Every structure is written in C-alpha cells, then in structure tokens.
Amino acid sequence: MLAALRAGTPEHHHAVERVLDLPGRVRDRRDLVIVLDAMLAAWQPVEERLATAYDWGRLGLDPRLGAAADLLRADLALLADDPPAGRGPAPGDLPALGGAAAAVGGRYVLVGSALGGRVIAPVIERRLGLPEGRGTGFFRRAGRTPDADWRAFRTAVDRRAWSAPERAEAVRAARETFAVIARTAAAAFAARPTTARPRAR
Ligand code: HEM
C-alpha cells in the first residue's frame, strides 16, 4: 500500500511544493504568518474530516495521528497579535475519505508531510532570526513524535492486505488531499501575496 501511495503521488507532492515554495517564499515575519495561515486554512478541515471519516481503531491507530493544526495556531499566536483567518475549502471541496483505503490515503499525506518540514524550519529560523521552534513549531512538529508516528502508520498499514482496487482508492484519496491543500494555499496566496517573487519555473 505505501509503495502504491509513494508511486502514485510524486506529481501531486511536487505541485504542492511548487505552490508553497518553501522556504524561499518566506522572507520576513509577515510572509511566515501568511504561509502558516494558508496551511491552517487547508489543514484544519482535512484533519477534522480525517479524524471522523473512519474508525481508526480498526487499524489500531489514533484518529488524530499526526494532527498538527494546533501547532499552526500556536505558531500564529506567537507571531501575530491578530492572525488573519484564511478561508478553507468548502466541505464539498474536500476529498471523500470514508472507508479504510481512502482514509489511509488521506492520512498518508498528513503524516508524511512532517518529513519535509524539518528541512524547511532551520532555514526559515536563520533567515528571520528566530530561535529554534519559534513560529516553526508546525514545521518541526515541536513536542510531537513525527518519526514514531510515521512508523506507527506504516506498521498499521502493512499489517493488513490491500486489494488492487483498495490501493487505487487510497491513491485517489491521497492525490485529492494533496490537491485540496495546494488549491487552498494558492487561493490564500492570491488573496494575500508574500513579498518574495515566485521562483522561476
Ligand atoms: C515546500 C514544501 C515541502 C517540501 C520542501 C517537502 C519536502 C519533502 C521531503 C524532502 C520529503 C522526503 C523526506 C524523507 O524521505 O525523509 C517529503 C516527504 C513527504 N512529503 Fe513533503 N514537502 C513539502 C510539503 C509537503 C506537504 C504540504 C505535504 C502534504 C500536503 C507533503 C507530504 C509529504 C509526504 C506524504 C511525504 C512522504 C513520501 C513518502 O516517503 O512516501 N509534503 N517531503
């Protein structure tokens, strides 16, 4: 299953990376607030839907494994007195994540996203002169256990056999999850541009 998810989503990962353009997009604190706000607008509804879309106990997993919207809120509260409240996707724009396979596809995107954040956080901290973890708690998954979460997710998913249609359904859900996050972030940046010029593509 994880091999199928990895093989089925690199273009979607690249698309979200292009939209976010991190760490390059963040040149000052205001940029960081805009980025975190965009992430929160995307993250929170997906996280909420994922927690209740499936009975995670059947896979032996916490329904909130890897949840991180609270870290985004904490970062925003540290950086801005009055953080903007970006608009998230409408419920109808969220992917269908019901059923084991779709739920696993969506969870893959959220749990896996912690892997890139650790590369991004130190660059942003250096550039903005921020102490480690200040305003970058989400990227660092500060106080969390992202490696253990990733292992727990892999182990739980590998323990079960998945049919080819189930693998396809998981890839569909993962692609749509990447896509809704990219769309939400793109809309947020269009409404409130960051200072950095988008990098040439
Ligand atoms: C510009 C932002 C991003 C960068 C630079 C980035 C970078 C990376 C890197 C370097 C890895 C591999 C880490 C490793 O193998 O140890 C990774 C994995 C991953 N990232 Fe990102 N990422 C970014 C944004 C995101 C976002 C927003 C999501 C989710 C919406 C995401 C989802 C994932 C997933 C699911 C994996 C695991 C892939 C696998 O091993 O199967 N990434 N990312």
Explained architecture:
By secondary structure, the protein is mainly α. It has a single domain (2-191), classed as Heme oxygenase-like (Heme Oxygenase, Chain A, Up-down Bundle), CATH 1.20.910. It is 63% helix and 0% strand. It contains 9 helices and no strands. The protein has helices at 2-8, 10-20, 29-53, 69-79, 100-112, 114-128, 137-140, 146-158, 164-191. Helix 2 (10-20) packs parallel to helix 9 (164-191), helix 3 packs antiparallel against helix 5 (100-112) and helix 3 runs antiparallel to helix 9 (164-191). The two termini are 32 Å apart. The structure holds protoporphyrin IX containing FE. Residues 6, 13, 16-17, 20, 22, 108-109, 112-113, 115-116, 119-120, 178, 181 line the site of protoporphyrin IX containing FE.
Compact overview of the structure:
This protein is mainly alpha-helical and 201 residues long. Helix content is 63%, strand content 0%. The structure holds protoporphyrin IX containing FE.
Keywords for this structure?
201 residues, mainly alpha, Heme Oxygenase, Chain A, 9 helices, 63% helix, globular, binds protoporphyrin IX containing FE
List strands and helices in order, with pairings.
Layout: H1 2-8, H2 10-20, H3 29-53, H4 69-79, H5 100-112, H6 114-128, H7 137-140, H8 146-158, H9 164-191
The protein binds protoporphyrin IX containing FE (HEM).
